[in-house]
Amino acid sequence: MTTSSWxxxxxxxxxxxxxxxxxxxxxxxxxxxxLARPLIPPxxxxxxxxxxxxxxxxxDRLARxxxxxxxxxxxxxxxxxxxxRAGSFRTPPAPFRDPAFARGRGACCICxxxxxxxxxxxxxxxxxxxxxxxxxxxxxxxAWKFWIAPHAQVxxxxxxxxxxxxxxxxxxLRTAEVDHLLPLYRVWREHRDAPWPELLGYWGAPNLQxxxxxxxxxxxxxxxxxxxxxxxxxxxxxxEDESGFSVVEEE
Length: 251
Fold this sequence. Notes:
Elements: H1 3-21, H2 28-35, H3 44-53, H4 56-70, H5 138-148, H6 154-160, E1 177-180, H7 184-191, H8 196-200, E2 208-211, H9 213-234, E3 236-241, E4 244-249
Antiparallel strand pairs: 1-2, 3-4
């Protein structure tokens, strides 16, 4: 059996299985996307997951919009290293993954909003209650993977920039790399007290760019120099004594 004949047979079977499992109400863009795939997803849930994986910038916008709807939980603050929290400033803050603020089954552990059938974010089926067997939206899962590994979506980001380097204006090369406009160490240093939904934008598309490798290396060099100067300056402090002000070095 050739590859094309195997694919044709497989898609016939997958489409039949998908159509059999489809409810009366199902997001039309998702179904259209599923039927156009080289390999048709055989179940509605897989169709939803495939849709968001292939519309990653849309998933990013939706996840941040859902987080804005939830808002910052009362008493929560971005911390590093505590139980249920990120061990590095490079990981997006996620209060609803913290056991102290988790909303339980039926609520997304990433954005905090109710999760409905097939991991959808709206109650299209008018059930009036979330799906208690689910703990995340399909869109939020795709967005989370995008936030922690944006380099995997370089093609989508290149297309958004019309294949032009944001630093030099030249055409992006095959070796172009994804970069954060505002480095994440500066987000932690300067914006850690910002509202949580606003913080997510620093991991999402608004703070991402694709630049050619040479320009990225120059930017990384400048950032490393700036961080080194900051560390060196942190070793000194100003003290006041009888003779006036003086600068002393911490041991």
